[in-house]
Design goal:
The protein is an alpha+beta fold. The protein folds into 6 domains: 116 residues, no CATH class; 130 residues, Four Helix Bundle (Hemerythrin (Met), subunit A) (Up-down Bundle); 58 residues; 55 residues; 162 residues, Histidine kinase-like ATPase, C-terminal domain (Heat Shock Protein 90), CATH 3.30.565.10; 135 residues, CheA-289, Domain 4 (OB fold (Dihydrolipoamide Acetyltransferase, E2P)). 53% of the residues lie in helices and 16% in strands. The protein has 26 helices and 18 strands. The strands form 4 sheets. A 6-stranded mixed sheet has the order 10-14-15-13-12-11. A hairpin with a 2-residue loop joins strand 4 and strand 5. Helix 1 crosses helix 2, helix 7 packs antiparallel against helix 8 and helix 7 runs antiparallel to helix 19. The longest helix has 30 residues. The radius of gyration is 32 Å and the shape is globular. The chain starts with a helix and ends in a 6-residue tail after the last helix.
């Protein structure tokens, strides 16, 4: 571990010396090394190294804003490399030097961040700002209803634009919504709403004219603006259209911070400003041209040339500079179709496999240190390329969360419930292929949580709960998986009701021996519903079976936990990417099998005193104070020539559904990144495989679907 970390830091230090813009592989290697700084916490028991890692990474990403940054990072990395010195006094000296560097790092970081934020001086509302608000209650009521409808429609269209940024109809629809709100608010004297709507209209005008793209950052800012407008409209309703009360509340809602953010995007320099900076025109000339522009409606540059204030080439140069400023903001990415990205991932997977095969064959034929060094370097480059390609296909789950906000609001409104929603982990990234599959299941789950789970306000009040229900939705990384949790504080799942309905439908004969998990899993059977009446939300028995089917398709897993009258929590566990996993390679019989590495707790061998044999012929081992059932994998996988004496096995300890299992294999080969390939129809009958892979020597390995493997094993062993 120490040697590997030291090599990464040395490589990053060397790459920093000659780093060029656009060298994505070098940038990826440097960022990976900086992230690894945090591991010094566990290696040397030094606190706050993780914070230092994050600070250095921020500086690295702002390196273009200050020429001192690359040298500063090189100095930090060099000092950290010196921490590997075994002399304790030397380490203390290095840590003191790092601590001395931190204030200057913070100073540079703060300077860069403030300059990028482009804050304007705070601007208070003028005394007469709210003096012209209409006192006509009916007009205000109509305006609020109409504006909220515009914003609801705009919100849906904006979320759709994340998937199709060039959809002209959606862009026009959003532009019209803001334009309409701006015009109506101006007529009614609501200047704060007018200014916010105007800034959003200006931004979308640039999107509509193809001057900027509807990037994720821009969409985030627009969604913030919509929430701000909704709050301003709600103030009117909350105050029962009393203008004096509305004014008082409006004075406490400061809009100019948000408008400044939008201005930093739309507020590029005018042609006249650029010409003045270049010394081609003075302030008097600018004012003269602006006055004529009002009367003639001609463009500024056109009038300036006609009046012989500047030459035509001066205007062209100024226009070129203006467009360059815009491109700094909008040209940070290239749009690539999803199909091409998937094809690239597949090809990189093939490249990883073929590189491994070439390396193994060459090293078997030629024993040469220089050749091995070159092949190792090639392997590292391909690994970095693979990581970059996979990251290109990753998107934040925030785009789904934004859609769910609309679903939750509309569903709760339709059935007369009050629901507050809290989101956590919006920046958690998932493979786009997974994102597309997970949206529909999440919609079903949140709708069910609101309809089945959260009670009506009066009912909640009788139970001593708050009138408003709470829905918490979170996403976070756990090993090679993402876990998405949906939790409501409603009435929970009534197990007796589920069992009764299952008996009525003939799904179970008796309830004896059913665990909570077994009971909750009945909910996922086709046609199952405990809803007595059919609504447009639920009750038809369609939904949760589809949820499970969709999650199964992406190799995911769904679990339910519930307590009556307190909560229901649904956890969805899905792989980070469908293309590549961290695999643990084993040999069972004559074949190679790969288990997911992140589920493995321990690997052990047993002696005569560690195991017992049950009356059914199954093995049970005693390890770390636990009795653990053993799954003889050769038997489950129908292998012919596997070991059958437990003392010859290697046991892989895992925990599944809070139950420990020992998976007995013949041999272990080691950990390896595994490119998962489809096995085709030949193995379609064998449900315990999630795919296959090809190793460097051409051997085919089978990737184990651990859920199906355990379920199959449960039918053949006794779990106590």
């Amino acid at each position: 571990m120490i040697k590997e970390l030291r090599e990464k830091l040395n490589t990053a230090t060397e790459l920093l010396k000659n780093l060029e813009d656009g060298d994505l592989i070098s940038i990826a290697i440097i960022e990976e090394a900086i992230n690894e700084i945090g591991r010094c916490n566990e290696i040397f028991n030094i606190k706050n190294m993780e914070k230092l890692s994050k600070r250095v990474l921020k500086l690295f990403r702002l390196r273009e804003k200050d020429s001192k940054i690359p040298g500063m990072i090189q100095e930090v990395l060099s000092l950290i490399i010196n921490l590997f010195d075994e002399d304790e006094d030397r380490r203390r000296e290095v840590l003191e030097k790092i601590n001395l560097l931190i204030p200057s790092m913070n100073s540079v970081l703060k300077s860069c961040l403030l300059s990028s934020m482009n804050y304007k001086q705070k601007k208070d509302y003028p005394e007469d700002y709210f003096n012209n608000i209409t006192t006509d209650t009916n007009m205000l009521k109509d305006f609020v209803v109409e504006s909220l409808e515009h914003l609801e429609r705009a919100q849906i269209d904006i979320v759709d634009l994340e998937y199709d940024t060039t959809n002209v109809d959606k862009i026009d629809s959003v532009f019209r919504a803001f334009h309409s709100i701006k015009g109506s608010s101006s007529f009614l004297g609501l200047r704060n709403i007018e200014e916010v709507a105007h800034s959003l209209e200006s931004l979308f005008s640039m999107v509509r004219d193809s001057k900027i793209r509807a990037t994720k950052e821009i969409i985030d800012r627009i969604l913030e603006g919509i929430e701000l407008l909704k709050n301003l409209l709600n103030i009117i309703t909350i105050n029962n259209f009393d203008v004096e009360k509305i004014k008082l509340d409006y004075k406490n809602v400061y809009i100019y911070d948000y408008i400044s953010e939008i201005s930093s995007i739309t507020g590029h320099k005018k042609i006249g400003e650029i010409l003045k900076e270049d010394g081609k025109i003075n302030e008097e000339d600018i004012q003269e041209i602006l006055i004529e522009q009002i009367e003639s409606k001609k463009k500024f540059g056109e009038i300036a040339v006609e009046k012989e204030k500047v030459k035509e080439e001066d205007v062209e140069l100024a226009f070129s500079k203006q467009q360059h400023e815009l491109r700094k903001f909008v040209s940070s990415y290239v749009k690539v179709s999803h199909e091409k990205l998937n094809e690239l991932v597949d090809n990189v997977g093939e490249l990883v496999i073929n590189q491994s095969m070439i390396k193994q064959k060459l090293l078997n034929m030629i024993k040469d240190v220089e050749l091995e060094r070159v092949l190792n370097a090639l392997e590292q480059i391909i690994k970095n390329m693979k990581n970059i390609v996979i990251s290109m296909g990753m998107v934040p789950i925030e785009e789904i969360f934004n859609k769910l906000k609309v679903v939750i609001r509309n569903t709760s409104k339709d059935i007369g419930k009050i629901v507050n929603v809290e989101f956590y982990g919006e920046d958690t990234e998932l493979d786009k292929n997974v994102i597309e599959k997970i949206y529909d299941p999440l919609v079903h789950i949140v709708r069910n949580a609101i309809d089945h789970g959260i009670e009506k306000p009066d009912e909640r009040e009788k139970k001593g709960k708050k009138r408003a229900g709470l829905l918490e939705i979170s996403a976070y990384h756990k090993g090679n998986n993402i876990e998405i949790v949906i939790k409501d504080d409603g009435q929970g799942i009534r197990k007796d009701k589920v069992i009764k309905k299952a008996k009525e439908k003939g799904l179970i004969a008796k309830e004896n021996g059913l665990s909570d998990k077994d009971i909750y899993n009945l909910i996922f059977l086709p046609g199952f519903s405990t809803k007595e009446t059919v609504t447009n939300i639920s009750g038809r028995g369609v939904g949760l079976d589809v949820v499970k089917k969709n999650i199964d398709e992406i190799k995911g897993k769904i679990e339910i936990e519930s307590k009556e009258d307190e909560y229901t929590k649904i956890t969805i566990k899905i792989p980070l990417t469908l293309a590549i996993i961290e695999g643990f390679i084993t040999k069972i019989g004559t074949n190679i099998y790969i288990f997911p590495f992140d589920i493995i707790e321990q690997i052990i061998t047993v002696n005569n005193n560690d195991f017992t044999k049950t009356s059914d012929g199954d093995y049970m081992i005693y390890h770390n104070g636990r009795h653990i059932p053993v799954i003889v994998s050769g038997k489950i996988l129908n292998e012919q020539n596997y070991k059958n004496d437990i003392r010859d096995f290697i046991i892989i300890i895992i925990e599944y559904d809070n139950i420990p299992y020992g998976i007995a294999v013949d041999n272990v080969i080691g950990k390896q990144e595994t490119v998962i390939k489809s096995l085709g129809g030949l193995f379609s009958d064998n449900s315990v495989f999630s795919g296959g892979t090809i190793f460097g020597d051409g051997t085919i390995g089978f990737v184990i679907d651990i859920d199906k493997f355990i379920e199959k094993a449960k039918g053949e062993i006794t779990v106590e």
